[in-house]
Each structure stands twice: as structure tokens, then as C-alpha cells.
Amino acid sequence: MKIVICAVPYSPNLGDGVIYENIKQLLLERLPGAEVSALDIAGRDDYVKAGISKKSLVNKVPKLLRPYAVCTYFSLQYFLRWRSKWIAQLADADLIVVGGGQLLLDVHLNFPVKLFLLSKAVKAAGKSGKVAVFGVGVSKSMSSAGTGLIKRTWENLAPIQASTRDVASAQNLKLILAQPLEVKVTPDPGIYSQQTFAPFLPPRTAGNVLGICISSPLELNQAGVEKQDYSERIGKYFQELAQQATTLGYRVHLFTNGSPEDEAFKDALAAELDPEIVNLPRPGVPSQLVANIGQCDCIIAHRLHANIVAYALDIPSIGLNWDSKVQSFFELTGRGRFFMQAPVPDVTRTFKLLYQALQVDGTGEKVRLTQQLTTEIAALLERSGLAGKAFAPESEPDQAGRAAAAAA
Fold first, then answer.
1. Are 127 and 93 contacting, i.e. CB atoms less than 8 angstroms apart?
2. What is the DSSP letter of 393?
3. 3-state DSSP assignment of residue 97
4. What is the CA radius of gyration of the chain?
5. What is the structure's pLDDT at 408?
6. DSSP state of 191
7. Is this prediction's pTM over 0.70?
8. How far, in Å, CA of 81 to CA of 115, rounded?
């Protein structure tokens, strides 16, 4: 029995890999012995060392031409490299899961084009109607061209079930498709990280470690809504945050979710800070990202999945503002007061909130959300007709190979 998870699991931003590994774990717990594989709609085949991102290259194209450049590039890649490989992978799938992550996002038609090309492969493989859209994020803003592509994607996929990771995304999806649609709200699969990555978590010790997740201002200010000096101001915020934390007795770890832009910005900031502030190397696989966060007693982060993993590991976090999806997660978990609205927060206010967050026990709400997540997975399998089916267990070489790949 075969299940294919389609998203961007091998993105340099390892938050996407965290999502994939969690969905895979949730499925395998209910269907031991099933074959669960990844199909990366950006054409990647594995977790690889991050180099120059295509996003940086696209940004060099004149703004009005970027959607055309994106469409041309990915269409060529699909017809020349991906189509036959994707159809072969999907041909014997019993279930295709599209999710999770912010997949319905329109930045120069990037994801609408990728999802449409995936839907073409699904239809060509004869798998329309064997698809579930699971726990996706959906942006409110979508171009007319992007909307058209998503509507055609939906027709090709003919999903048996659809869920989004928050209420706003469910509403946005209904608006985009402009049709009667039952959309469930499923907590982000990242909240299952404690179970999924248990073998990779370091022993918890009281070390007063503050993890600061560094994000590139180019990523945080994609729409150019902040002032031109935003890069300088957010950089100073991170540096002052780290310096004051050491004064307050924290041991500071700087880390990223893996994006090359974030890594470059982190290294530039760290070069001007005291050597006692630890600059962690880039994590190469999701388990390393989770382990980096697992070393911390608290974290401060813009990145959604840094906050989600921290929540999963019962590590207090402060969320920083750059995208509504971060605020949505904090509200979903009943921790909205620990999300900072200011584009460049006040350092003193940040530490006051952090102190308050350290006093709060949020495990009760996490239990409820985890139960909701596992219930939705069970419902998905029931709807697909796979629930309760038995599968032959993997052979010992297969099990050893999968364990080695997870530890790589």
C-alpha cells in the first residue's frame, strides 16, 4: 500500500521538512508497513546543502516580468524533467496527500504554477479523486491568474477531503474557489514533533538557554511594506536582544530554520557579537533543526515552525510579526498575548513577555490540539478507504535504510 505526500518537503527552509516528517509519522502509526514517500513540487529529491536560492534569482528579474519568468521556468522543468518521474511515482499510489505548509500562496505565481503542474501529473496518472488536501495554509491575497490556476488545480485533483491549518485559511480557500466546500481546520502537523523526533532530542537540562531564530529582512519584508531602513533596524533588534540576554544571565544560541538568506544574515550579525554568543551551524535535516530548538529553554522567532516545534516540545516562545500565519498559530494555541505586533519590537518589552511566557503551562491545550490532529488523520484514512487495512511490514534492509536516512 502506497501513500505519496506532495508539498515542498526538501525545501532549504526545514520547517517544510518538519511538516512532512510529522505527516509521515502520523500515517505510519495508523498504517504500519505502508510505503510513504515524498514528492517535492519544486523538483528536489532530498535534503541538500542550501546554496543560492531561486528566490534571490527571481528577485533580479523586473517585477512585472517575474510571474512570466516563474511560469516559464517551472513549466520547462516539468515537461523536460519532472512529468514522467512524477507520473511513475503517483501511478500506483493508493492515496495522495497534498500538504501541509503555506502551499496556497501567490508570490509571482510560484505555488499556483507548481500545484497546477502537480495536478496535471495526478490527472495523467489516473489518480484524480484519490487526493486529500491536508492542513494547508492559504493566503488571503491571490492574483486573478493565481486564482484561475488554483481552480483548475482543484478540478484536476478532485480532493476527497480538504483541511486547512487555521480558520482564516479555510475562509480564504472558500473565497478563492468560489464554490460550496466543506473545509476542516486541522492543527499544523508540526505540533506532533515531540513524538516524531523523540530519538533525536537532546536530554533536557536546566541551562537557561535562549534560542534566537534569525530571519533575513529580505524574507520578512517581501512586499516592501516596511521602510527602507528595516534591514538595519531588525538587525539591531536581534543584536541588542542577544547582548541584553547575556547580561540577564541567558546563554544565547543563534539559529535559523535553514534558509540560505537567513543563514547569511545570521552569520553577519554574529560576526559583530561577543564570542560567548553561540552561532549554531545550519541544520541539514529536520531532525537537526528540532534538536537545535530542543537545546533551548525558551526561544524568540519570526519563523512559524520554530515556534511550532518549540510549542510541541513544551518550550516557551515569543512570536515576532511578519506574516498573519504566525499570529494565527499563537491565537489557535491560546497564546496570543505572546505574539508581538510591532514590526521591530522593543527589546525590553520582549524580555517582559518572555518572563511571563516562562510562567505559563500550555500543555493542556496542546493535548487537545494533538488529539484533534490525530482525529483528522484517522478521518482522512477512513474517507480514503485505507483505515484498518493491514500491510506487510517492511523488510529488515528497508527498515535499516529508512533509519539511516532519518539520522543522516
1. yes
2. P
3. strand
4. 21
5. 44
6. G
7. yes
8. 16
- Measured CA to CA in angstroms, residue 195 lies from 29, 38, 73, 299 at distances of 11, 20, 39, 20
Q: Which three cell numbers stand for residue 344?
A: 521591530
**In the numeric block, which cell numbers belong to residue 257?**
530554520
Residue 396 has pLDDT above 60, yes or no: no
41 within 8 A of 114, measured Cβ to Cβ: yes
CA distance 181 to 178: 9
Indicate whether 393 pLDDT > 60. no
> How much is the mean pLDDT over the chain?
91
Cell of 272: 559583530
Dump the DSSP string for 161-173.
EEEESSHHHHHHH
Cis peptide before 101 (omega within 30 of 0): no
What is the DSSP secondary structure assignment for residue 133, as one 8-state letter?
E
Where do the H-state alpha helices sit in 78-166?
Answer: 83-90, 110-124, 144-157
**Backbone φ, ψ for residue 53 (5° rounding):** -80, 150
- C-alpha cell at position 329: 498559530
Q: Is 393 exposed, middle or buried (0-12, 13-18, 19+ CB in 10 A)?
A: exposed
Distance (Å, rounded) from C-alpha 131 to C-alpha 156?
10
